[in-house]
Amino acid sequence: MNRRKFIQQGMVAGSALVAGSLLPEQLLATDNPYQLTILHTNDVHSRLDPFPMDGGRNQGMGGVAARAVLIQKIRQEQSQVLLLDAGDIFQGTPYFNIYKGEPEIKAMTMMGYDACTMGNHDFDGGIENFATQLQHAKFPVLMANYDFSGTALEMKTKPYQIFQKGKVKVGVFGIGIELEGLVPENLYGKTIYQDPIVAANKTATMLKKKGCDLVICLSHLGDKYDDGKVSDEILAKESYDIDLIIGGHTHRFFEKPRKYSNKRQKEVLVNQVGWAGIQLGRMDYKFSSFDNSKTADSKSIFIGNISAK
User: Fold this and answer.
1) Domain spans of the chain?
2) Which architecture, in CATH terms, is 3-302?
3) What distance in Å separates the CA atoms of residue 237 and residue 259, rounded to the nearest whole number?
4) Is the dihedral of CA 232, 236, 85, 132 positive or negative?
5) Which of 47, 76, 204, 242 is the most exposed place for a label (fewest CB within 10 A)?
């Protein structure tokens, strides 16, 4: 059996498992218009299959079929769900080397991702390749600080997307890392990198003015650095209107979201769930119908053995 048939059959099998085994959960569905469940991944790096059973510490973990089952189960239990990814979809297994990202994007579409941003490795096949693979995407790629004018990605990404989930209005936007020195210039071409703090604050403030109850930044900056390089930590502290940063790039497995105070002395949460699709992040927000205040609970769920951390 060739790899393409294997991928297709694996996805069909995973979808059949979702459809056939979870219908009873519909009876338990929570239809609360003031509650929102955010599911998120980052740095999946073409890991479509679980890690092989070779005695390694990650054996049996990950894989799109198990992730799809878990996502569908949560959707049966909760009526208001957003599924997001913080970049580096590509590169890391032979699937990308052979198919250049097609099965990865198709898998995300089948799982019903609502939006993603780009990571540096998403340029590994060249900017033209990423643009080509977007024909398989039924979700937007969000990027607020890359100017793609004059490139194959011009008009194929969006700076932000607004989602109405029950009574809650959610603004989501993307922020990318500086490509120079990290990605060969011939792969990103004429892409212009813009200051992520400036772009993020401008976009977040605009989303608040549009009435968003929650503003989420999908960031591929990395959580923090010793040399002062711009990071999620710096972005959180320098922000005004961001509520949640879903991060990537540094492959950190957070035990719980980090909390920072922004320029208005309001709380900003930052979360990240490692790499390779080993974990699915979950954030459960509850909004008050009286004063629009919100609370959040979180957990990271291991994929494969489906045990909560």
Assistant:
1) 3-302
2) 4-Layer Sandwich (3.60)
3) 10
4) negative
5) 76
Measured in whole angstroms, the distance separating CA 139 from the mean position of its chain's CA atoms is 11
- pLDDT tens per residue, the chain (309 residues)? 454 454 454 444 444 334 344 444 444 456 788 999 999 999 999 999 999 999 999 999 999 999 999 999 999 999 999 999 999 999 999 999 999 999 999 999 999 999 999 999 999 999 999 999 999 999 999 999 999 999 999 999 999 999 999 999 999 999 999 999 999 999 999 999 999 999 999 999 999 999 999 999 999 999 999 998 999 999 999 999 999 999 999 999 999 999 999 999 999 999 999 999 999 999 999 998 766 678 889 989 999 854 433
* Distance between CA atoms of residues 162 and 139, nearest Å: 12
* Contact between 240 and 197 (Cβ < 8 Å): no
Distance separating the N- and C-terminal Cα atoms of the chain = 36
Residue by residue, DSSP assigns 30-99 as: B--TTEEEEEEE---TT--SPPPSSS-TTTT---HHHHHHHHHHHHHHBSSEEEEE-S--S-SSHHHHHH
Q: How far apart are CA 149 and CA 70, in angstroms?
A: 38
Q: What is the DSSP letter of 181?
A: T
Which tokens belong to 250? 């540094």
Q: Which residue has the tokens 């200051």?
A: 195
Report the C-alpha gap between 280 and 118 in whole angstroms.
18
Please report, to the nearest 10 degrees, the dihedral formed by the alpha carbons of residues 215, 121, 104, 109 taken in order.
Answer: 20
